[in-house]
Amino acid sequence: MACANTSWSEENFSCSICLDVFNSPVTTACGHNFCRTCITKFWDGQVQYKCPVCNKHFDTRPDLQVNTFLSELAAQFGTSVQVKEQPFVQPAEVPCDVCTGTQLKAVKSCLECLVSYCLTHLEPHQRVAVLKKHRLVEPMDRLEDRMCKKHDRPLELFCQTDQVCVCQFCTETNHKSHPVVPLKEEYEVKTAQLGKIEAEVQQMIQERKLKIKEIKDKVEISNKDADREIADGGQVFTALIGCVEKCWDDFNHTVKEKLKSTVKQAEDLIKELEQEIEDLTNRSSEVKQLSHTEDHLHFLQAFRSLKNPPHTRDWTVVEVCPPSYVGSLRRSLDQLKDSLNMEMKKLRDAELKWVQQYEVDVTLDPDTAHPHLILSEDGKQVHDGGVWKKLPNNPKRFTNYTFVLTRQSFSSGRFYFEVQVKNKTAWWLGVVRESIDREAGIMLVPETGYWALYYTKDALVFKDNPAVRLPLRAELQKVGVFVDYDEGLVSFYDVEARVHIYSAAGCTFTEPLYPILYPCLHAGGKNSAPLIISPVN
User: Fold this and answer.
1) What are phi and psi of 133, to 5 degrees?
2) Where would you tag: which of 160, 399, 429, 458 has the fewest CB atoms within 10 A of its CB?
3) What is the model's pTM?
């Protein structure tokens, strides 16, 4: 038998009719070969039978038999062709390390040989008994990373002190005194931890889903509040439609813009939550994928990146508050004061009732009180005693201004409190941020952390730069202070007259706010009456 079959080309084993490798080849009397099916179909359409290659005519239709020898050679050649048709390696795929010239795509990597093989070069691992014991995994690149770069030995152990994979020689040098275990042992430990990580990720996902629901509920409340506010305003403006049409349009626009802002805030938060859920879901997928790998080294090296979860926000302190419409109608109706006095009176009364629902119970903090001040036992009253008391040093205490703060502070939402100022010739009250300087003499304005109203017999002033002088109110007996932290609003009310005094809008609050009281000097007894924190009537 000739041994030159290695030089045979595909043409030697191809049917000249179908141009493919022979399938059940038969040989004609003239010595040409065809697939049995091909020559049969060719002759079925002929009246005279001839060879498709040399046109030799046959008197009768030949009775052809399969050429078994050629059939076996064609089968072997077909297998060889299939091997040659293995896919070439593509970008991002693992190439065969054994192939020379054009590299084929690897189908397996051997963790013992540290070599990746294509289908052809993998054959010894499927046939040789010793090689069959090698551990084959899905193709992976950078198998050299499985070798210790310092000792050129396989990374077979795990250092629990440094949390890195090491070779046997490493345990005798840099890691000599460190506890080391086989990769499989540490793999099992880390695998057990995956369950806890997965549970934590799922819990974080659920918490964010609940936060989305909470935000959507707040948006629904905001919509209802906006609808109700617009409806109430509609009743007022409809009664005076001829003179307030423009005011109504302005009011309606203001309310909707506030609602739009709230909805936009909620949508942004929901988008951020959904992004975190996506990130956490991806992390969950990574954890699940890693939990199924049997490659100890890959597992341990990849596990290190799982220790730090993706950056997420602390959503426990995030909320969407329905917008405040305090003063919206009032500011609109001010433009038509002459014709709308009656409606304004109704609205002011409703506004005060609305803010009063946010009443908080606050008491004065003696640790912050200036040494001249005297506080009642219940912490509800304060007046100037005129004498410097010897008190323990306290960094919270005011030593320059005769101020006192409440024990309570507020970092979100809305709050309201009332202070009786009856029989006082001078007083000062409002809210301040936590970090104000309690020793130095500074301007008491919003820029330095003070939002306060100041009263004397000659003036009623909101302390700003410049100061805002307000109309003096006769017989001002009780002042209400309302703060919407998230809206950036501080408002003052004449409680007995049920009239709005002043609002500082557009404020920016970034730290806790404290109510603050200043009874002013007693003026020889003329201003000795206390400031009294009173419950809402």
Assistant:
1) -80, -10
2) 458
3) 0.48
